[in-house]
Structures are given as C-alpha cells and as structure tokens.
Amino acid sequence: MKIKQLSVFLENKRGRLYEALKALAESGINIRALSIADTSEFGILRMIVTDPEKAKEILEKNDFTVKLTNVIAMAVKDKPGGLAEGLKYLYDANINIEYIYAFVEKSGEKAVVVLRTENLDKTISLLQEKGVNLLSWDDVLAL
Amino acid sequence: MFWNKEIECINEEQLKEIQLQRLKDTVKRAYEKVPYYKRKFDEVGITPDDIKRLDDLRKIPFTSKADLREVYPFGMFASPLREIVEIHMSSGTTGKPVVAGYTMNDIEIWGEVMARCLTMAGATKDDIVQVAYGYGLFTGGFGVHYGARKIGCMIVPASAGNTRRQIEIMRDFGTTILTCTPSYALYMAEVAQEMGIEPTNLKLKAGCFGAEMWTEAMRSEIEKRFGLNAYNIYGLTEIIGPGVAHECVEKNGLHIFEDHFIAEIIDPETGDHLPDGKRGELVLTTITREGMPMLRFRTRDITSLIREKCSCGRTFVRIERIRGRTDDMIKVRGVMLFPYQIEKAILEVQGVEPHYQIVITRPQHLDEIEVMVEMSKETFSDEVKHIEALKKKLERRIEEIVGIRVKVTLVEPKSLPRSEGKAKRIIDKRSLSE
After folding, report:
1. So what's the pLDDT on residue B314?
2. A56 touches chain B (CB under 8 A)
3. Which residues of B279-309 are buried (b: 16+ CB within 10 A; e: fewer)?
4. Does domain B330-433 have CATH number 3.30.300.30?
5. Range of the domain at A108
6. What is the chain A residue with the closest CA to B411?
7. In B, which residues are within 8 Å of A37 by CB distance?
8. Given a cut of 90, is residue B195 above it in pLDDT?
9. The whole model's pTM is what?
10. According to the model, what pLDDT value does residue B94 have?
11. CA-based, 20 to 30 A from B91: which of A37, A92, A137, B185?
12. Same domain assignment for residues A80 and A126
C-alpha cells in the first residue's frame, strides 16, 4: 500500500522550481499531487507523478538531487472532520506524522491525502485494521 | 619503553657531534655521486668543504618534489644500481611519481627507526602486530614490517583492504598492535560493529596511525572505539618512508630520530629559517641514507619544532602534529586553515567525495567562512529536519577539525564551478570588503 513519491532538493534560487517542472512537462509527466517544504535556504519539492522512475531519471539528467520515498495515499471522507478521524488513529497509536498534503483529485466521494509517518509499515497495518481506505498505485493512477 | 635508549636519550653535545660528522659524510657523498647535487652546489658556489658546522646546512639549496620528478627515475641515487636492493615509489597524483632507492644498509636503518617507533607504542617480542598499511610500492607496509621483525614481534602482513578478514584476524589471532591509516582504523571499527564484533573486546592495546593528516578528535574517537592507545607516526617516501618521527607515551609531539634525520622549519613563502616553536614548513635532511641522500627536502608539511625536554626521557626534538600542507594554506582569523581539513570533515559526514567551495568574507572586521556543499544523492533526505541536522553536523565537524566556526550552505549538485576537473576550492573576498 506504499506509493512512490518524488522528492527534489531545491536551492532558494530564482527559476529552480520552474526548471524542474519544465523538465517534467517536456517529458509528458503529469503531476497528481504536489507540496513544497520551504526553509530560508532551501526547499523540498514533493510530488506524486505518473511515472516516478522516469521522472527521477529526467530530473537527475538535469542535475537535480532526487529521491524516491515511500508514502501512503489515504482516502478520507470529504466533509468536516474527515481527515481528523483518520489522524486520530495515528494520534492514539503514538505515531508521528512527518508531513501530509492533499491530492487535487478525489477518489469517488473521498478526498485523498499523501502521508508520511515515522513508521510506514505500522501506520499501514493500523489504518487497514481500522478500515481506512488506502490507495494502491493503480488507484492513484486511476484518479 | 626504549628500543635504543643510549641513542634516544643521548645528550645534546654528543648528538651534535654525531650529526655533524654524518652530515659532512652525506654532503660529500651527495656532491660526488649525484650530478643533481653537484649542479645545485655549483649554482650557489659552495662545496662540501663549506659545511663546517651544523648551521652551515642552511647554505645548501632546498630540494623539492619537483626536483625529484625531474631526475625520474634513478637520478637521485648515490649508489650504483647493483647496490640498490629495494625500490619504493610515492603516488604521483600531480605528475611523475618519486622513486626511492634503498641499499642494504638503508633497509637496516629503516628497520631500526621503525623498531623505535613500534617500541614507543609499547611493542615487544610478545606482541602481534597487524600491518594494515599497504604492502607494495607504497612504503607503509614494508616499513612497519621491517621494524616489527627487528623487535621480533609476530607480524600479520594483512596489507590494506579486505576489512572483514582484517577484523576476523584481529579477533582470532588476538592482534595487540594495529598499524594503518587513522581513517581506515575508524572504518574498521564500524565494520566490526556491523559484524557483531565489539571492537573494545579485541585484544588491541596500541596502534601506530599515519600516512595521512588527522586530528586529536579522531585520536579520541579511535581510542574510544577500540580501547587502545593511538600514536601518531610520521614519514615520507622521499626521506625513508614511515619512521622519521613517532609519538612517545606523552602523546605530545613526535620525536624525530635526529641521529638519522635533521629537521628545520622554514617560512614557506620566503624560505627563511624559523626559530623553534614557530609554525612553518618542515625541511628534512637525511644523514645516514646511502642509496638516496636527501639534502634539505621541502616536505610541504606544516608543523613546528618542540625543543623542550620531554618527560619520556628522550632528547630528540619533537614536531607537533602535522597541521596541513603548504600548497593550500589559507589564513583566517589568524588561524591556518586547509581545504583538506574541510574536505575531510565533509567526507566523514557525507561518506562520499564532496564537492564544496570555501568563501571567505570580512563583513565587519572579522573573517567569516561559508562552506558551500553540494547535496549528494546519498545524503539527501526529503525531510527538512534531516537536512537541517545534516547541515548542523557538517558545521560541527568542520569546527571540531579546523577550530573555527563556519556556516554551511547546502547547494544543488553541479552548481559549484569546476575547472579542468579540479574545482576552485577557495573564494577569498576579503580584500574587496576592506
């Protein structure tokens, strides 16, 4: 139930984000979800893309530092409290979240968030046990 | 413990007498047998007869590594090739390598000085010495080997590499003395732990570490990891190999074996002789070598001479730990700094050959150093806290090694300029801001 996320190291320099996205665009890679963690000196661009392996290759060819990281795509009810409900399970089990961001597209009636925690395996089994809907890679591509 | 107490504790007067006689003999031999030296002497208008006192050594021109390359391969030999019994070579990263030739007697002397080194580290006939310096053209392996054999230690000629086997040998044979480069020792400690062998449970009691620059912080780390006494050994191919100087139990400077080598410190820029205690470039003269006498060889190593009496009882002068190389020295806030040290710090933290640049500025009367380090694939994490921790770790390690606080900035790969394969490491902007 892990899905591959593409992470890119970006210096806080004019044009770097654009250059990264341009390289992906030229290769016909579509971005399904995206977030940027920014600090005063650098940023980390995190993306769920249609072909992560190819995207990595393209970005590396363009001298970006890239890493594929495992994350979870969790579907939650698209209504107030929907996400909180899912996160409560993690809170109760004392699992820390490293970061979280949302997909633009919905999965049926549900909203989808990308989630990385300090212990992915434990998180996956916990959420599955609680009946939370986790998306497979095929589900993600079908969004 | 002494290997040769009589000579290692010789009084100053006697030592000077021996040195002067040996120096005269060496100069005469060099002048007569090596055309290079004759030419150099002729150029400045001196002959061996001008060497009447030890201070007269200063009249002799320096010999540089470049000079040695010019006479490659055998041009510095003072003995016919049939008298040369062994050859070693220094790695030629910046040009032709330097070839060193040894007569039977030179090998004998090498064994003698190395026996003194190992004895300083506590080696006796009862010890098992694992030689994890490379055997081959490099002088490390054979030098230690000859010294250990003279003492009668049980030698394990493991050479460098095959780390897992090195550790199994240490465990199974009960090695008591380890000799290798300090960085290799640290690597071995890590591998041992991976293998489930606790390094402190090995029987190691001491180690002679050298052949690269290292720091007091690394010494403590090695000592803690293995539970041994780590000693600093110094030498170079051009002079004899390892065995030029070694630390005694005081671990406060390395005693130079002055009955075989004469040490001077000079200002690397002017070539002027510097007094004891002043830091500068180490210049060495061999006074017993037959195969390849070396007169005033500029080592390019930065150190100072410690003439004060050492509590171990040895009267030989000490050099402080090598502080760097003259080639790439920069002065920041009055402290000598070497890119090498920063590179080492980054390498230790990142684990890969780093690309970096040092930018020195003086925003307000005080030098500031910024070290730009290219993010490597290996250390990139997609979590901010890990990257910030990496930056802090780099800053801390660099400060530990060079003694100055620096600011580290992580930059994207290939964003630092490279020229002809070798990057421009230092950007000094200080003159502009004054």
Report:
1. 97
2. no
3. ebbbbbbbbbbbbbbbbbbbbbbbbbbbeee
4. yes
5. 72-142
6. A11
7. 383-384
8. yes
9. 0.64
10. 53
11. B185
12. yes
